[in-house]
């Protein structure tokens, strides 16, 4: 078994790759027009103008969940009328009312967790092996049509801290299209120390009520009777929430195990062998996932700040509206908070196909930015998926003539803002740090959290190196000063 490199060597090796592949310079110079591939051939054939679509069609497909125990989903029904609504399932608790808690309805799969079947050829490792891997991975058997089958359940990074931090401000609910067995298992994994994150009557699975569970859409009335003005929904899908879409915060889908299953299986094999050899007592370092397979998803830690801000603004709005008798609707606070991300940004897109451009344009508007198509409109940012386009040349020319001040960034810049609801650093995601394919001019698709991690690691190493240089300089100065002092003679 290959030994792991020391931590410092690993970071040096990682940063070496970062500097070579992203061309990160230790000198923080902005991208100049002369650096922006002005001599590349102009590509105009696939350069569309970007306009917001009237609406995005709902594909009507739900992610397959373990344990298919109900009939095949029926076509999407119309929104239930008032006479069709079921009686309230959950009542507002006294502590929620006294603490002005908002209701937070949570999805499970691809939002808080990622569950996948274990490969049929993989041996079933003891739980201590899975725990020793140290990535918040669980394994269980879930009932399927052919019987119980082993599954991996991976928790999204930071989920425990997310729930604990928001518990004083929010009353949690769960609405999942998975089975009750799966729901109860995940609830135990989310609350291993019994901190009371979830009440039994605040959770809903597809097995609980055929009326609300038989179709592929979700109805908040199945799990939560709180006024819709007090409800926030966190889900990786928004179109399935019928007429509650304005209350949905759509999160990036969490699909770590879908993408890294083979790497995790290999790491489990090495961990099992390491434990058989005696573990720490053997003197061999514990095997770990390689850096490319580690999970840098920082969505939930970022959303702690967002949800805290939303609750704070909601309470302030309640205090201001109390005298006037106005109703405070949390969906307006959600919308206003989200729009602060790219407020006052005039963003131009280049190098995207029509579908990608339309989707990103819609998101930019949702996050407070303005999408423009002409350099004459004065873009503040050019988001560049491909070099050598007509817009690249026009922006570079205007910057060279000093008639335009524009930041040229990788699409990761947008993705990071969409995920964190915070204006991202242009320096970290500036296009000069990324190497385009010399044949197509296309810039690589990157995980924005990984890019941010590499940049933060580089900054910390630079700070540490600067501190060591300063300490060495101070030590040399002290030594020289001591040597230059005349000796003290005895009287």
Short description:
Keywords: Hydrolase, Nucleus. The chain is of the alpha/beta class and about 500 residues long.
Task: Describe this structure as you would to a colleague.
- With 491 residues, the chain is an alpha/beta fold.
- 37% of the residues lie in helices and 12% in strands.
- It has 2 domains: 7-52 and 340-450, BRCT domain (Rossmann fold); 99-278 and 294-306, 3-Layer(aba) Sandwich (Rossmann fold).
- The chain is built from 14 helices and 12 strands.
- Strands 6-5-1-7-8 form a 5-stranded parallel beta sheet. The chain has a 4-stranded parallel beta sheet with strand order 10-9-11-12, sandwiched between helices.
- Strand 11, helix 11 (390-400) and strand 12 form a beta-alpha-beta unit.
- The longest helix is centred in the last third of the chain and has 37 residues, at 448-484.
- The radius of gyration is 27 Å and the shape is globular.
- It is an enzyme of class 3 (hydrolase).
Under CATH, the homologous superfamily of the largest domain reads HAD superfamily/HAD-like
The helix fraction, in percent, is 25-40%
* Secondary-structure class: alpha/beta
Distance between the termini: 70 Å
Shape: globular
Q: Write the element-wise H/E pattern from the N-terminal end onward.
A: HHEEHEEHEHEHEEHHHEHEEHEHHH
EC number: 3.1.3.16
GO molecular function, one term: RNA polymerase II CTD heptapeptide repeat phosphatase activity
Domain BRCT: 337-414
Organism: Perkinsus olseni
How are the elements arranged and paired?
Layout: H1 7-22, H2 94-98, E1 102-106, E2 113-117, H3 127-132, E3 137-144, E4 147-155, H4 159-166, E5 170-175, H5 180-190, E6 203-204, H6 210-213, E7 231-235, E8 248-250, H7 256-276, H8 299-322, H9 330-339, E9 346-350, H10 354-366, E10 370-371, E11 381-384, H11 390-400, E12 407-409, H12 411-420, H13 426-429, H14 448-484
Parallel strand pairs: 1-5, 1-7, 5-6, 7-8, 9-10, 9-11, 11-12
Antiparallel strand pairs: 2-4, 3-4
């Amino acid at each position: 078994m290959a030994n792991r490199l020391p931590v410092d060597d690993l970071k040096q090796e990682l940063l070496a790759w970062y500097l070579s592949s992203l061309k990160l310079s230790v000198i923080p110079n902005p991208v100049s027009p002369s650096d922006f591939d002005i001599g590349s051939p102009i590509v105009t054939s696939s350069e569309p103008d970007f306009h917001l679509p009237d609406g995005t069609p709902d594909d009507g497909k739900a992610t397959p969940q373990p344990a298919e125990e109900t009939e095949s989903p029926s076509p999407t029904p119309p929104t239930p009328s008032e006479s069709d609504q079921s009686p309230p399932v959950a009542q507002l608790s006294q502590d929620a009312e006294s603490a002005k808690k908002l209701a937070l309805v949570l999805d499970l799969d691809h939002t808080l967790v990622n569950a996948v079947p274990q490969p049929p050829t993989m041996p079933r490792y003891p739980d201590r092996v899975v725990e020793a891997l140290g990535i918040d991975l669980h394994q269980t058997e879930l009932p399927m049509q052919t019987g119980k089958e082993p599954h991996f359940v991976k928790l999204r990074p930071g989920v425990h801290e997310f729930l604990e931090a928001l518990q004083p401000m929010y009353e949690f609910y769960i609405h999942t299209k998975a089975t009750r067995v799966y729901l109860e298992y995940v609830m135990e994994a989310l609350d291993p120390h019994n901190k009371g994150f979830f009440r039994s009557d605040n959770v809903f699975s597809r097995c609980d009520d055929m009326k609300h569970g038989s179709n592929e859409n979700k109805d908040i009335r199945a799990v939560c009777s709180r006024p819709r003005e007090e409800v926030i929904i966190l889900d990786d899908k928004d179109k399935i929430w019928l007429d509650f879409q304005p209350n949905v915060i759509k999160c990036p889908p969490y699909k770590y195990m879908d993408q890294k299953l083979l790497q995790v299986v290999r790491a489990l094999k090495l961990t099992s062998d390491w434990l058989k050899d005696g573990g720490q007592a053997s003197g061999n370092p514990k095997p770990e996932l390689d850096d490319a397979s580690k999970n840098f998803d920082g969505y939930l830690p970022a959303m702690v700040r967002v949800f805290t801000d939303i609750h704070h603004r909601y309470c302030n709005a309640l205090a201001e509206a109390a005298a006037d008798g106005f109703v405070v609707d949390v969906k307006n606070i959600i919308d206003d908070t989200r729009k602060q991300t790219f407020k006052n940004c005039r963003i131009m897109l280049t190098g995207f196909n029509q579908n990608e451009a339309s989707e990103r344009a819609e998101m930019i508007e949702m996050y407070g930015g303005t999408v423009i198509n002409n350099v004459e409109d004065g873009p503040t940012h050019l988001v560049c998926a491909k070099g050598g386009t007509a817009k690249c040349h026009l922006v570079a020319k205007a910057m060279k003539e000093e008639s335009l001040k524009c930041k040229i960034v990788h699409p990761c810049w947008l993705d990071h803002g969409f995920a964190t609801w915070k204006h991202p650093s242009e320096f970290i995601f500036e296009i000069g740090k990324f190497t385009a394919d010399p044949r197509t001019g296309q810039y690589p698709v990157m995980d924005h959290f990984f890019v941010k991690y590499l940049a933060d690691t580089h900054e910390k190493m630079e700070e540490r190196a600067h501190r060591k240089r300063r300490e060495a300089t101070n030590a040399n100065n002290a030594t020289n000063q001591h040597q230059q002092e005349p000796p003290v003679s005895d009287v």
